[in-house]
Design goal:
The two termini are 37 Å apart. The chain has two domains: 159 residues, Phosphoenolpyruvate Carboxykinase, domain 1 (3-Layer(aba) Sandwich); 184 residues, Rossmann fold (3-Layer(aba) Sandwich), CATH 3.40.50. Strand 2 and strand 3 form a beta hairpin. It is globular. It is an alpha+beta fold. It contains 13 helices and 19 strands. The strands form three sheets. Strands 9, 10, 11, 12, 13, 14, 17, 18 and 19 form a nine-stranded mixed sheet that branches.
Length: 363
Amino acid sequence: MTAGSPAPATLAPSAEELVRALAVADEALAEAGRSCGEARHRLEVSGESIDLVFAGERLAEGVVPSFAHKERSSNGGAPALTIQLCDAATSGRAIPLPPCLEEASLRRAEFPTYRSRRIEALYDWDRRVLHMLDRELRRAIYWTEDAAAVPLWEHAGSLRQILVWWLRDGPLQLLHAGAVGREDGGVLLVGRSGSGKSTSTAACVASGLRIVGDDTVLARADPFPVAESLYGSVKLTPDGLERFPALGARAANEGRDADEKAIVYLSEALPGKLVEALPLRALLIPKIVARAEARLLPARPAQGLLALAPSTLFQANGAHRGAFRVLAQIVEKLPAYVLEVGTDATQIPRVIEALLDGEVPRG
């Protein structure tokens, strides 16, 4: 989902219908794999293995690079989750939508969504993507009409919906936030799109600081807040490209449209910058200001929660109340500050390092 998209609607339960739909999809994907060849990639996310099984290589070329730092060799054990991925243009195999999703998708008025204790499904008719998860079988499906029609900047945050569902009841939650720092600790950058998060993370990548994530990270609150990496990419807007031309020169999507975000895969371009996890020491709320100077101002916990929760929960269709509890605990445990992002982006990492060194700003 993106900002401005209509709110999802949960349709009337029909567990049997979704079980049948999953069986049909499984058979279609198995046949697609036989005809196109399977490409398998094993990831490790917070100590658990996830297998990505692609029908053909086309979709894998877009999805896998953001997870390159999470790839592990298979030890032969069963994964915690298997995600089957397929696009109809490559495989020649369409997956029929379950009737409850088909009916709603034809109205094009909302994201048709289904939830039950076992199965969750969502069809994004704007991008023609079907997401399904079966908790009992620990299997998920990601199907789209044409992998080539999905922009690379969307692939750079791929499988978000499935991962939100899968993580929903656990201590680890997917946050709409960035995280940067150094080995002794980091900061969580929170706020709506356009608030300055990406500028701040890009400035830190261009400096001596490390990055856990640009726009999306995994986080837990207990026993203390920790941010864990999920996607190993940085997205740059046209403004970001002007501010950080050396970083933009490493973009993977060189032939992109003028208004399309540039994608830099850190595992490939700057492997030393990406870290798996950092203990969190503060929550920063970026705010773009007109002057050159960057500075920190104390903020109330309520400001931090307001900056973090709405965008995280809006993007996480199907988030459980446990997700909000984790967000609230993180905010409760971390001091919050407004990070005024000035026109001189080189000051941003200096301000963050001063905070990590114990220089507490006072209002």
